[in-house]
Write a structure and sequence with these properties.
Methane Monooxygenase Hydroxylase, Chain G, domain 1, mainly alpha, single chain
Length: 151
């Protein structure tokens, strides 16, 4: 029969594995955003959702094991070292995932802003403020000829 510390370590290892898979999905998502591949983005979205569901289940399992741990007071300090190292790895992966998500969201926002500007250029009918053409000198409107003749 597996001990409580063994179950806890296995649950933490499972969570680390799931977080690494999620990180891989985010890297693939980035590639599919750079070279637009909508079909792969949809499949990645489904894969990420499955991973997130599995991560939630694993977190619930860990919570349950922690509750058993506090009631049983079974886990020794030697058993906690691997769990502490895995917990540190989970925090690191979590921060890396957050950074990748921010990068992907930023890329999407910049791309949408670019397309919005392109559409604005076409919709404006060639107004000068949206034009990429060099700015021409404005022609000065000469003062009325009547004033010149009077002098």
């Amino acid at each position: 029969m597996e001990t409580l510390s063994g179950k806890m370590e296995a649950a933490y290892r499972n969570k680390v594995s799931l977080l690494r898979e999620l990180l891989g999905c985010l890297a693939q998502e980035r590639e599919n955003l750079i070279v637009p591949n909508v079909q792969n983005l949809w499949s990645l979205m489904e894969a990420k959702q499955r991973l997130l569901d599995s991560i939630r289940e694993t977190e619930e399992e860990i919570r349950g094991l922690r509750n058993q741990e506090t009631s049983a007071q079974e886990v020794s300090t030697n058993d906690r070292n691997p769990v502490a190292a895995l917990s540190h790895e989970i925090r690191r992966l979590g921060e890396e995932i957050k950074a990748r998500v921010r990068e992907n969201v930023s890329f999407i926002q910049e791309t949408l802003l670019f397309f919005d500007e392109i559409i604005s250029i076409f919709a404006s009918g060639g107004r000068a403020e949206y034009s990429y053409a060099p700015v021409l000198k404005r022609q000065r409107i000469s003062s009325s000829l009547i004033y010149r003749k009077e002098v």
